[in-house]
Structure prediction request, 586 residues.
Amino acid sequence: MNRSQSNPWLARYAVLTALATLGLICLGGLVTSHEAGLAVPDWPTTYGYNMFFFPISRWTGGVFYEHTHRLWASLVGLLTVALAVWLWLKESRPWLRWMGVLALFLVVAQGVLGGLRVVALKDEIGIFHGTLAQLFLVLLASIALWTSRWWREAAQEGGADYARLRKIFLMISALVLCQLALGATMRHQHAGLAISDFPLAHGRLWPATDPTAIAHYNQARNEVFALKDITAAQVWLQMAHRLLAVAIFCAIAWAARQTVKRLSPHHPLSRLALGWLALVTIQFALGAFTIWTNKSADIATLHVACGATTLVTGCLLGLMAHRRQEAPAVTPPLAGTRNALGPRPTQQPA
Amino acid sequence: MNKSNIDMKQCFRLLTAALVTSVATPLFAGEVSGKVKLDGTPPAPKMIPLDTDPTCKVLQLKPVPTRHYVVGADGGLANTFVYIKEVPGGKTYEAPADMPVLDQKGCMYEPYAMGVMVNQKFKIRNSDPLMHNVNAGVFNFAQTSQGQETIKSFAKAEVPVKFMCNVHPWMFSFMGVFEHPFFAVTDKDGSYKLPAGLPAGKYTMVAYHPKAGETTQEVTVGADDKKTADFTLKVK
Prediction:
Protein backbone atom coordinates (compact mmCIF):
# COMPACT_ATOMS: atom_id res chain seq x y z
CA MET A 1 0.00 0.00 0.00
CA ASN A 2 1.26 3.47 -0.90
CA ARG A 3 1.55 5.30 2.40
CA SER A 4 3.26 8.61 3.08
CA GLN A 5 3.39 11.60 5.41
CA SER A 6 2.48 13.92 2.60
CA ASN A 7 -1.27 13.85 2.10
CA PRO A 8 -2.38 17.44 1.52
CA TRP A 9 -6.00 16.52 0.89
CA LEU A 10 -6.04 14.39 4.02
CA ALA A 11 -4.79 17.41 5.99
CA ARG A 12 -7.51 19.61 4.50
CA TYR A 13 -10.10 16.96 5.24
CA ALA A 14 -8.92 16.77 8.86
CA VAL A 15 -9.38 20.55 9.13
CA LEU A 16 -12.89 20.18 7.72
CA THR A 17 -13.71 17.47 10.27
CA ALA A 18 -12.37 19.62 13.11
CA LEU A 19 -14.43 22.60 11.92
CA ALA A 20 -17.55 20.42 11.66
CA THR A 21 -16.88 19.31 15.23
CA LEU A 22 -16.61 22.91 16.39
CA GLY A 23 -19.98 23.50 14.71
CA LEU A 24 -21.36 20.51 16.58
CA ILE A 25 -20.15 21.93 19.88
CA CYS A 26 -21.91 25.20 19.00
CA LEU A 27 -25.13 23.31 18.33
CA GLY A 28 -24.70 21.50 21.64
CA GLY A 29 -24.33 24.91 23.26
CA LEU A 30 -27.60 26.02 21.66
CA VAL A 31 -29.32 22.87 22.96
CA THR A 32 -28.36 23.54 26.57
CA SER A 33 -28.88 27.31 26.25
CA HIS A 34 -32.45 26.68 25.10
CA GLU A 35 -32.98 23.97 27.75
CA ALA A 36 -33.91 21.69 24.87
CA GLY A 37 -31.77 18.63 25.65
CA LEU A 38 -34.76 16.47 26.51
CA ALA A 39 -37.15 17.90 23.92
CA VAL A 40 -36.76 14.64 22.02
CA PRO A 41 -37.40 12.02 24.70
CA ASP A 42 -36.34 8.96 22.72
CA TRP A 43 -33.01 7.83 21.26
CA PRO A 44 -31.76 6.70 18.77
CA THR A 45 -35.20 7.33 17.28
CA THR A 46 -36.80 10.78 17.21
CA TYR A 47 -40.42 10.71 18.34
CA GLY A 48 -40.50 7.14 17.10
CA TYR A 49 -39.10 8.01 13.65
CA ASN A 50 -35.79 7.03 12.14
CA MET A 51 -34.03 10.32 12.87
CA PHE A 52 -33.17 10.91 9.21
CA PHE A 53 -36.84 10.76 8.23
CA PHE A 54 -38.30 12.87 11.02
CA PRO A 55 -40.67 15.33 9.28
CA ILE A 56 -39.31 18.87 9.03
CA SER A 57 -42.75 20.21 9.93
CA ARG A 58 -42.16 18.88 13.45
CA TRP A 59 -38.85 20.60 13.99
CA THR A 60 -40.45 23.19 16.28
CA GLY A 61 -39.45 24.75 19.59
CA GLY A 62 -36.79 22.83 21.46
CA VAL A 63 -37.05 19.90 19.04
CA PHE A 64 -35.34 22.02 16.36
CA TYR A 65 -32.16 22.43 18.42
CA GLU A 66 -31.96 18.88 19.73
CA HIS A 67 -32.77 17.22 16.42
CA THR A 68 -30.36 19.42 14.48
CA HIS A 69 -27.67 18.55 17.03
CA ARG A 70 -28.31 14.85 16.46
CA LEU A 71 -28.21 15.14 12.66
CA TRP A 72 -25.02 17.22 12.76
CA ALA A 73 -23.52 14.67 15.15
CA SER A 74 -24.29 11.95 12.60
CA LEU A 75 -22.45 13.99 9.97
CA VAL A 76 -19.42 14.38 12.26
CA GLY A 77 -19.57 10.66 12.94
CA LEU A 78 -19.43 9.90 9.21
CA LEU A 79 -16.64 12.43 8.65
CA THR A 80 -14.66 10.83 11.48
CA VAL A 81 -15.14 7.31 10.10
CA ALA A 82 -13.82 8.47 6.74
CA LEU A 83 -10.91 10.27 8.42
CA ALA A 84 -9.95 7.16 10.36
CA VAL A 85 -10.12 4.99 7.24
CA TRP A 86 -8.14 7.51 5.18
CA LEU A 87 -5.46 7.74 7.88
CA TRP A 88 -5.30 3.97 8.15
CA LEU A 89 -4.86 3.52 4.42
CA LYS A 90 -2.63 6.44 3.48
CA GLU A 91 -0.71 7.64 6.52
CA SER A 92 2.78 6.23 6.95
CA ARG A 93 3.21 7.04 10.66
CA PRO A 94 1.68 4.16 12.65
CA TRP A 95 1.00 6.26 15.77
CA LEU A 96 -1.02 8.70 13.65
CA ARG A 97 -3.02 5.87 12.15
CA TRP A 98 -3.95 4.87 15.69
CA MET A 99 -4.94 8.44 16.46
CA GLY A 100 -7.57 8.05 13.73
CA VAL A 101 -8.80 4.91 15.47
CA LEU A 102 -8.90 6.81 18.77
CA ALA A 103 -10.97 9.57 17.10
CA LEU A 104 -13.34 6.93 15.81
CA PHE A 105 -13.68 5.43 19.29
CA LEU A 106 -14.29 8.86 20.81
CA VAL A 107 -16.96 9.86 18.33
CA VAL A 108 -18.83 6.61 18.96
CA ALA A 109 -18.48 7.10 22.72
CA GLN A 110 -19.77 10.66 22.36
CA GLY A 111 -22.82 9.49 20.43
CA VAL A 112 -23.61 6.83 23.03
CA LEU A 113 -23.11 9.31 25.88
CA GLY A 114 -25.44 11.80 24.20
CA GLY A 115 -28.04 9.08 23.78
CA LEU A 116 -27.66 7.85 27.36
CA ARG A 117 -28.10 11.42 28.60
CA VAL A 118 -31.52 11.40 26.96
CA VAL A 119 -32.76 7.99 27.98
CA ALA A 120 -31.19 7.76 31.46
CA LEU A 121 -32.21 11.33 32.42
CA LYS A 122 -28.91 11.97 34.20
CA ASP A 123 -27.38 15.46 34.18
CA GLU A 124 -23.98 13.97 35.10
CA ILE A 125 -23.79 12.21 31.74
CA GLY A 126 -24.37 15.55 30.06
CA ILE A 127 -21.41 17.07 31.92
CA PHE A 128 -19.16 14.23 30.75
CA HIS A 129 -20.58 14.51 27.21
CA GLY A 130 -19.83 18.24 27.11
CA THR A 131 -16.27 17.82 28.37
CA LEU A 132 -15.39 14.86 26.19
CA ALA A 133 -16.56 16.89 23.17
CA GLN A 134 -13.75 19.37 23.88
CA LEU A 135 -11.15 16.60 24.00
CA PHE A 136 -12.48 15.14 20.78
CA LEU A 137 -12.12 18.53 19.09
CA VAL A 138 -8.54 18.82 20.38
CA LEU A 139 -7.73 15.41 18.94
CA LEU A 140 -9.15 16.28 15.51
CA ALA A 141 -7.34 19.63 15.46
CA SER A 142 -4.14 17.82 16.42
CA ILE A 143 -4.62 15.31 13.60
CA ALA A 144 -5.05 18.26 11.24
CA LEU A 145 -1.76 19.69 12.53
CA TRP A 146 0.09 16.36 12.37
CA THR A 147 -0.96 15.83 8.76
CA SER A 148 -0.17 19.42 7.75
CA ARG A 149 2.71 20.60 5.61
CA TRP A 150 3.86 22.78 8.49
CA TRP A 151 4.38 19.71 10.65
CA ARG A 152 6.35 17.95 7.94
CA GLU A 153 8.56 20.92 7.22
CA ALA A 154 9.01 22.34 10.70
CA ALA A 155 12.58 22.27 11.84
CA GLN A 156 14.34 22.38 15.15
CA GLU A 157 15.21 25.90 16.22
CA GLY A 158 16.51 25.62 19.77
CA GLY A 159 15.69 23.22 22.54
CA ALA A 160 15.46 25.06 25.84
CA ASP A 161 13.09 27.86 24.88
CA TYR A 162 10.70 25.59 23.07
CA ALA A 163 10.76 23.03 25.85
CA ARG A 164 9.77 25.70 28.34
CA LEU A 165 7.12 27.17 26.07
CA ARG A 166 5.68 23.74 25.40
CA LYS A 167 5.36 23.19 29.14
CA ILE A 168 3.71 26.58 29.62
CA PHE A 169 1.23 26.09 26.75
CA LEU A 170 0.22 22.62 27.82
CA MET A 171 -0.14 23.48 31.50
CA ILE A 172 -2.35 26.45 30.68
CA SER A 173 -4.34 24.29 28.26
CA ALA A 174 -4.94 21.84 31.12
CA LEU A 175 -6.29 24.76 33.16
CA VAL A 176 -8.53 25.77 30.24
CA LEU A 177 -9.85 22.21 30.07
CA CYS A 178 -10.67 22.34 33.80
CA GLN A 179 -12.45 25.64 33.17
CA LEU A 180 -14.47 24.13 30.33
CA ALA A 181 -15.40 21.19 32.57
CA LEU A 182 -16.62 23.69 35.20
CA GLY A 183 -18.62 25.46 32.50
CA ALA A 184 -20.12 22.17 31.32
CA THR A 185 -21.08 21.36 34.91
CA MET A 186 -22.82 24.72 35.26
CA ARG A 187 -24.67 24.35 31.97
CA HIS A 188 -25.76 20.77 32.49
CA GLN A 189 -27.30 21.42 35.90
CA HIS A 190 -30.09 23.32 34.14
CA ALA A 191 -30.37 25.91 36.88
CA GLY A 192 -29.63 29.00 34.82
CA LEU A 193 -27.32 31.60 36.31
CA ALA A 194 -26.42 30.85 39.92
CA ILE A 195 -25.12 34.43 40.14
CA SER A 196 -26.91 37.00 38.06
CA ASP A 197 -24.62 40.02 38.40
CA PHE A 198 -21.04 40.81 37.41
CA PRO A 199 -18.42 41.88 38.45
CA LEU A 200 -20.08 41.68 41.88
CA ALA A 201 -21.77 38.46 42.95
CA HIS A 202 -25.24 38.94 44.42
CA GLY A 203 -24.19 42.50 45.21
CA ARG A 204 -21.02 41.51 47.09
CA LEU A 205 -17.42 40.65 46.40
CA TRP A 206 -18.09 37.15 47.74
CA PRO A 207 -21.73 36.05 47.84
CA ALA A 208 -23.48 34.71 50.93
CA THR A 209 -24.33 31.03 50.59
CA ASP A 210 -26.23 30.30 53.80
CA PRO A 211 -29.70 28.70 53.41
CA THR A 212 -31.51 32.01 53.95
CA ALA A 213 -29.48 33.71 51.24
CA ILE A 214 -30.00 30.84 48.80
CA ALA A 215 -33.76 30.90 49.47
CA HIS A 216 -33.70 34.63 48.81
CA TYR A 217 -31.81 34.22 45.51
CA ASN A 218 -34.32 31.62 44.33
CA GLN A 219 -37.26 33.75 45.34
CA ALA A 220 -35.88 36.78 43.54
CA ARG A 221 -35.40 34.92 40.27
CA ASN A 222 -38.16 35.73 37.84
CA GLU A 223 -37.38 33.13 35.22
CA VAL A 224 -39.57 32.44 32.22
CA PHE A 225 -38.18 28.98 31.46
CA ALA A 226 -38.34 25.89 33.63
CA LEU A 227 -35.12 26.01 35.61
CA LYS A 228 -34.07 24.13 38.69
CA ASP A 229 -33.55 26.06 41.91
CA ILE A 230 -29.99 27.13 42.50
CA THR A 231 -27.96 25.71 45.37
CA ALA A 232 -25.00 26.95 47.41
CA ALA A 233 -22.77 24.51 45.52
CA GLN A 234 -23.76 26.12 42.22
CA VAL A 235 -22.92 29.58 43.56
CA TRP A 236 -19.48 28.32 44.61
CA LEU A 237 -19.08 26.67 41.23
CA GLN A 238 -19.68 29.95 39.42
CA MET A 239 -17.28 31.75 41.75
CA ALA A 240 -14.65 29.09 40.99
CA HIS A 241 -15.35 29.60 37.25
CA ARG A 242 -14.82 33.36 37.65
CA LEU A 243 -11.62 33.03 39.64
CA LEU A 244 -10.20 30.45 37.26
CA ALA A 245 -11.11 32.74 34.35
CA VAL A 246 -8.99 35.52 35.87
CA ALA A 247 -6.13 33.07 36.49
CA ILE A 248 -6.27 31.75 32.93
CA PHE A 249 -6.40 35.24 31.46
CA CYS A 250 -3.31 36.25 33.42
CA ALA A 251 -1.55 32.99 32.56
CA ILE A 252 -2.19 33.37 28.82
CA ALA A 253 -1.08 37.03 28.90
CA TRP A 254 2.13 35.91 30.61
CA ALA A 255 2.58 33.03 28.16
CA ALA A 256 2.17 35.38 25.20
CA ARG A 257 4.76 37.72 26.68
CA GLN A 258 7.16 34.84 27.29
CA THR A 259 6.72 33.63 23.71
CA VAL A 260 7.40 37.06 22.23
CA LYS A 261 10.40 37.51 24.52
CA ARG A 262 11.94 34.10 23.90
CA LEU A 263 11.33 33.99 20.15
CA SER A 264 10.55 37.21 18.33
CA PRO A 265 7.39 39.29 17.85
CA HIS A 266 7.12 38.12 14.22
CA HIS A 267 7.68 34.46 14.89
CA PRO A 268 4.63 32.35 13.94
CA LEU A 269 4.34 30.97 17.47
CA SER A 270 4.43 34.49 18.92
CA ARG A 271 1.66 35.54 16.58
CA LEU A 272 -0.39 32.52 17.48
CA ALA A 273 0.24 33.14 21.20
CA LEU A 274 -0.94 36.73 20.76
CA GLY A 275 -4.00 35.36 18.95
CA TRP A 276 -4.53 33.09 21.93
CA LEU A 277 -4.48 36.14 24.19
CA ALA A 278 -7.01 37.87 21.94
CA LEU A 279 -9.22 34.79 22.09
CA VAL A 280 -9.18 34.59 25.87
CA THR A 281 -9.90 38.32 26.07
CA ILE A 282 -12.96 37.84 23.86
CA GLN A 283 -13.88 34.80 25.95
CA PHE A 284 -13.68 36.83 29.15
CA ALA A 285 -15.95 39.50 27.65
CA LEU A 286 -18.39 36.85 26.42
CA GLY A 287 -18.53 35.43 29.93
CA ALA A 288 -19.44 38.84 31.30
CA PHE A 289 -22.05 39.37 28.58
CA THR A 290 -23.51 35.93 29.29
CA ILE A 291 -24.37 37.24 32.74
CA TRP A 292 -25.40 40.74 31.68
CA THR A 293 -27.81 39.29 29.09
CA ASN A 294 -29.22 36.78 31.60
CA LYS A 295 -27.65 33.92 29.69
CA SER A 296 -28.92 34.86 26.27
CA ALA A 297 -28.73 31.69 24.17
CA ASP A 298 -26.65 33.23 21.38
CA ILE A 299 -24.10 34.83 23.68
CA ALA A 300 -23.83 31.75 25.91
CA THR A 301 -23.27 29.59 22.82
CA LEU A 302 -20.56 31.93 21.53
CA HIS A 303 -18.97 31.62 24.98
CA VAL A 304 -18.92 27.83 24.57
CA ALA A 305 -17.47 28.06 21.05
CA CYS A 306 -14.80 30.57 22.04
CA GLY A 307 -13.86 28.40 25.04
CA ALA A 308 -13.38 25.40 22.77
CA THR A 309 -11.27 27.45 20.36
CA THR A 310 -9.14 28.73 23.25
CA LEU A 311 -8.45 25.16 24.37
CA VAL A 312 -7.59 24.02 20.85
CA THR A 313 -5.26 26.98 20.31
CA GLY A 314 -3.38 26.26 23.54
CA CYS A 315 -2.99 22.59 22.69
CA LEU A 316 -1.82 23.34 19.14
CA LEU A 317 0.70 25.85 20.50
CA GLY A 318 1.99 23.15 22.82
CA LEU A 319 2.31 20.67 19.95
CA MET A 320 3.99 23.24 17.70
CA ALA A 321 6.51 24.14 20.40
CA HIS A 322 7.13 20.44 20.88
CA ARG A 323 7.73 20.04 17.15
CA ARG A 324 10.20 22.91 17.12
CA GLN A 325 12.03 21.57 20.14
CA GLU A 326 12.32 17.96 19.11
CA ALA A 327 14.71 17.23 16.29
CA PRO A 328 12.35 16.11 13.57
CA ALA A 329 13.14 13.92 10.66
CA VAL A 330 12.64 16.83 8.35
CA THR A 331 11.55 16.26 4.85
CA PRO A 332 13.33 19.01 2.91
CA PRO A 333 10.99 21.52 1.30
CA LEU A 334 10.33 20.97 -2.34
CA ALA A 335 12.50 22.96 -4.63
CA GLY A 336 11.22 26.49 -5.13
CA THR A 337 8.85 26.35 -2.16
CA ARG A 338 9.23 28.06 1.17
CA ASN A 339 8.52 26.74 4.60
CA ALA A 340 4.95 27.91 5.08
CA LEU A 341 4.69 29.00 8.69
CA GLY A 342 8.12 29.64 9.99
CA PRO A 343 11.64 30.72 9.27
CA ARG A 344 13.82 28.54 7.18
CA PRO A 345 15.45 25.69 9.03
CA THR A 346 18.59 26.74 10.79
CA GLN A 347 20.14 23.34 10.54
CA GLN A 348 19.71 20.47 8.21
CA PRO A 349 18.66 17.07 9.43
CA ALA A 350 21.29 14.53 9.88
CA MET B 1 -81.58 -17.66 43.26
CA ASN B 2 -78.81 -18.35 45.75
CA LYS B 3 -76.40 -16.19 43.76
CA SER B 4 -78.91 -13.35 43.81
CA ASN B 5 -79.23 -13.65 47.61
CA ILE B 6 -75.49 -13.46 48.03
CA ASP B 7 -75.35 -10.37 45.85
CA MET B 8 -78.10 -8.75 47.90
CA LYS B 9 -76.24 -9.50 51.14
CA GLN B 10 -73.03 -8.07 49.78
CA CYS B 11 -74.80 -4.94 48.63
CA PHE B 12 -76.42 -4.51 52.04
CA ARG B 13 -73.05 -4.85 53.80
CA LEU B 14 -71.41 -2.38 51.48
CA LEU B 15 -74.22 0.14 51.88
CA THR B 16 -74.08 -0.21 55.68
CA ALA B 17 -70.30 0.28 55.66
CA ALA B 18 -70.61 3.33 53.44
CA LEU B 19 -73.33 4.82 55.63
CA VAL B 20 -71.36 4.24 58.84
CA THR B 21 -68.22 5.71 57.29
CA SER B 22 -69.96 8.78 55.93
CA VAL B 23 -71.72 9.50 59.22
CA ALA B 24 -68.93 8.53 61.60
CA THR B 25 -66.08 10.30 59.83
CA PRO B 26 -67.31 13.85 60.39
CA LEU B 27 -68.30 12.99 63.97
CA PHE B 28 -65.00 11.49 65.06
CA ALA B 29 -62.47 13.39 63.00
CA GLY B 30 -61.46 16.97 62.46
CA GLU B 31 -61.36 19.35 59.59
CA VAL B 32 -58.83 22.04 58.89
CA SER B 33 -59.23 24.93 56.52
CA GLY B 34 -57.78 28.38 56.16
CA LYS B 35 -56.01 30.79 53.93
CA VAL B 36 -52.47 31.45 52.78
CA LYS B 37 -51.46 35.06 52.30
CA LEU B 38 -48.43 36.65 50.72
CA ASP B 39 -46.73 39.46 52.60
CA GLY B 40 -44.81 41.80 50.33
CA THR B 41 -44.78 42.74 46.69
CA PRO B 42 -43.64 39.99 44.33
CA PRO B 43 -41.76 40.69 41.09
CA ALA B 44 -44.05 41.58 38.20
CA PRO B 45 -44.83 38.64 35.94
CA LYS B 46 -43.03 38.43 32.61
CA MET B 47 -44.67 37.73 29.29
CA ILE B 48 -43.94 34.31 27.84
CA PRO B 49 -42.33 34.26 24.36
CA LEU B 50 -44.89 31.94 22.79
CA ASP B 51 -43.72 32.75 19.27
CA THR B 52 -40.96 30.13 19.58
CA ASP B 53 -43.68 27.80 18.32
CA PRO B 54 -46.10 29.66 16.03
CA THR B 55 -48.92 27.20 16.78
CA CYS B 56 -48.71 28.08 20.48
CA LYS B 57 -49.17 31.72 19.61
CA VAL B 58 -52.28 30.87 17.63
CA LEU B 59 -53.66 28.83 20.53
CA GLN B 60 -53.17 31.67 23.00
CA LEU B 61 -54.86 34.74 21.64
CA LYS B 62 -53.71 36.98 24.49
CA PRO B 63 -50.23 37.42 25.94
CA VAL B 64 -49.58 34.88 28.66
CA PRO B 65 -47.70 35.90 31.82
CA THR B 66 -45.55 33.73 34.06
CA ARG B 67 -47.35 32.31 37.10
CA HIS B 68 -44.75 32.45 39.83
CA TYR B 69 -47.03 34.43 42.13
CA VAL B 70 -50.79 34.37 41.59
CA VAL B 71 -52.09 36.70 44.28
CA GLY B 72 -55.75 37.53 45.01
CA ALA B 73 -57.10 40.96 45.85
CA ASP B 74 -56.56 40.59 49.61
CA GLY B 75 -53.13 39.00 49.34
CA GLY B 76 -54.34 35.39 49.12
CA LEU B 77 -51.66 33.27 47.46
CA ALA B 78 -52.78 30.62 44.98
CA ASN B 79 -50.93 27.40 44.08
CA THR B 80 -49.63 26.75 47.60
CA PHE B 81 -49.46 23.19 48.87
CA VAL B 82 -50.90 22.91 52.39
CA TYR B 83 -50.47 19.55 54.05
CA ILE B 84 -49.94 17.60 57.24
CA LYS B 85 -46.25 16.82 57.59
CA GLU B 86 -46.63 13.54 59.50
CA VAL B 87 -48.67 10.57 58.37
CA PRO B 88 -51.82 11.04 60.50
CA GLY B 89 -52.52 8.13 62.81
CA GLY B 90 -49.32 6.46 61.66
CA LYS B 91 -51.26 4.24 59.34
CA THR B 92 -51.02 3.44 55.67
CA TYR B 93 -53.52 5.18 53.44
CA GLU B 94 -54.69 3.61 50.22
CA ALA B 95 -54.50 5.74 47.12
CA PRO B 96 -57.95 6.81 45.88
CA ALA B 97 -59.30 5.43 42.64
CA ASP B 98 -60.14 8.76 41.02
CA MET B 99 -57.63 10.01 38.47
CA PRO B 100 -56.93 13.75 38.44
CA VAL B 101 -55.80 15.25 35.16
CA LEU B 102 -52.72 17.30 34.32
CA ASP B 103 -53.59 18.92 31.02
CA GLN B 104 -51.44 20.60 28.37
CA LYS B 105 -53.64 23.27 26.90
CA GLY B 106 -52.58 26.27 24.86
CA CYS B 107 -48.93 25.33 25.50
CA MET B 108 -49.42 25.69 29.24
CA TYR B 109 -49.89 23.12 31.98
CA GLU B 110 -53.25 23.15 33.75
CA PRO B 111 -53.41 23.20 36.68
CA TYR B 112 -50.19 24.93 37.66
CA ALA B 113 -50.15 23.08 41.00
CA MET B 114 -51.91 19.87 41.97
CA GLY B 115 -51.55 17.10 44.53
CA VAL B 116 -51.83 13.33 44.39
CA MET B 117 -51.18 10.47 46.77
CA VAL B 118 -48.36 8.00 46.46
CA ASN B 119 -49.37 5.36 43.90
CA GLN B 120 -52.46 7.33 42.91
CA LYS B 121 -52.88 7.19 39.17
CA PHE B 122 -53.30 10.45 37.31
CA LYS B 123 -53.76 11.31 33.66
CA ILE B 124 -51.48 13.50 31.61
CA ARG B 125 -53.42 14.80 28.65
CA ASN B 126 -52.37 16.67 25.54
CA SER B 127 -55.23 18.92 24.50
CA ASP B 128 -53.08 20.76 21.97
CA PRO B 129 -52.87 20.01 18.25
CA LEU B 130 -49.09 19.76 18.49
CA MET B 131 -46.52 17.65 20.24
CA HIS B 132 -45.19 18.05 23.75
CA ASN B 133 -42.75 16.08 25.82
CA VAL B 134 -43.58 15.51 29.47
CA ASN B 135 -40.45 15.58 31.62
CA ALA B 136 -40.86 15.00 35.35
CA GLY B 137 -37.25 14.08 36.12
CA VAL B 138 -37.99 10.40 36.70
CA PHE B 139 -39.72 10.00 33.35
CA ASN B 140 -39.75 11.83 30.04
CA PHE B 141 -42.08 10.82 27.24
CA ALA B 142 -43.70 12.23 24.13
CA GLN B 143 -47.32 13.09 23.49
CA THR B 144 -47.49 13.75 19.80
CA SER B 145 -51.19 14.10 19.04
CA GLN B 146 -54.21 15.97 20.32
CA GLY B 147 -56.27 14.11 22.89
CA GLN B 148 -53.48 11.67 23.79
CA GLU B 149 -53.55 10.57 27.43
CA THR B 150 -50.96 8.79 29.52
CA ILE B 151 -51.56 7.37 32.99
CA LYS B 152 -48.76 7.71 35.53
CA SER B 153 -48.19 7.51 39.28
CA PHE B 154 -45.36 8.17 41.72
CA ALA B 155 -44.07 5.55 44.15
CA LYS B 156 -42.50 8.02 46.60
CA ALA B 157 -43.72 11.12 48.44
CA GLU B 158 -42.14 14.34 47.19
CA VAL B 159 -43.05 18.03 47.29
CA PRO B 160 -42.81 19.32 44.68
CA VAL B 161 -42.24 17.30 41.54
CA LYS B 162 -41.61 19.68 38.66
CA PHE B 163 -43.14 18.90 35.27
CA MET B 164 -41.71 20.57 32.22
CA CYS B 165 -41.89 20.48 28.46
CA ASN B 166 -38.52 20.94 26.75
CA VAL B 167 -40.16 21.54 23.38
CA HIS B 168 -41.73 24.66 24.93
CA PRO B 169 -39.39 25.44 27.84
CA TRP B 170 -41.71 27.98 29.44
CA MET B 171 -44.17 25.16 30.19
CA PHE B 172 -43.81 23.92 33.74
CA SER B 173 -46.01 23.01 36.67
CA PHE B 174 -45.74 21.47 40.11
CA MET B 175 -47.19 18.35 41.68
CA GLY B 176 -47.15 17.38 45.35
CA VAL B 177 -47.02 13.66 46.10
CA PHE B 178 -48.19 12.70 49.60
CA GLU B 179 -48.41 9.55 51.70
CA HIS B 180 -51.84 10.48 53.02
CA PRO B 181 -54.91 12.33 51.72
CA PHE B 182 -54.65 15.35 54.04
CA PHE B 183 -53.35 17.92 51.61
CA ALA B 184 -54.80 20.72 49.50
CA VAL B 185 -53.72 23.32 46.99
CA THR B 186 -54.87 26.90 47.59
CA ASP B 187 -57.31 28.38 45.10
CA LYS B 188 -57.06 31.79 43.44
CA ASP B 189 -58.04 33.49 46.71
CA GLY B 190 -55.45 31.59 48.71
CA SER B 191 -58.09 29.45 50.47
CA TYR B 192 -57.78 25.76 51.15
CA LYS B 193 -59.61 22.99 52.96
CA LEU B 194 -58.06 19.67 53.92
CA PRO B 195 -60.25 16.61 53.30
CA ALA B 196 -62.48 15.55 56.18
CA GLY B 197 -61.48 12.62 58.35
CA LEU B 198 -58.25 13.86 59.90
CA PRO B 199 -57.75 11.75 63.06
CA ALA B 200 -57.58 13.72 66.31
CA GLY B 201 -54.05 14.66 67.24
CA LYS B 202 -51.30 17.25 67.19
CA TYR B 203 -49.79 17.92 63.77
CA THR B 204 -47.27 20.05 62.00
CA MET B 205 -48.92 21.74 59.07
CA VAL B 206 -46.85 22.94 56.15
CA ALA B 207 -47.62 25.62 53.60
CA TYR B 208 -45.20 25.35 50.66
CA HIS B 209 -45.15 27.60 47.64
CA PRO B 210 -42.64 26.96 44.83
CA LYS B 211 -41.44 30.57 44.90
CA ALA B 212 -42.41 32.02 48.26
CA GLY B 213 -40.99 29.07 50.19
CA GLU B 214 -42.27 27.22 53.20
CA THR B 215 -43.76 27.94 56.61
CA THR B 216 -45.13 25.60 59.27
CA GLN B 217 -47.39 25.73 62.30
CA GLU B 218 -48.49 23.29 64.97
CA VAL B 219 -52.18 22.42 64.97
CA THR B 220 -54.06 20.32 67.51
CA VAL B 221 -57.20 18.78 66.11
CA GLY B 222 -59.87 17.36 68.40
CA ALA B 223 -62.32 14.58 67.64
CA ASP B 224 -64.83 16.74 65.82
CA ASP B 225 -62.96 20.02 65.61
CA LYS B 226 -63.24 22.42 62.76
CA LYS B 227 -59.95 24.26 62.87
CA THR B 228 -58.79 27.28 60.99
CA ALA B 229 -55.09 27.54 60.22
CA ASP B 230 -53.92 30.58 58.28
CA PHE B 231 -50.41 31.03 56.94
CA THR B 232 -48.36 33.97 55.76
CA LEU B 233 -45.47 33.62 53.34
CA LYS B 234 -43.13 36.53 52.74
CA VAL B 235 -41.46 37.98 49.71
CA LYS B 236 -37.94 38.40 51.07
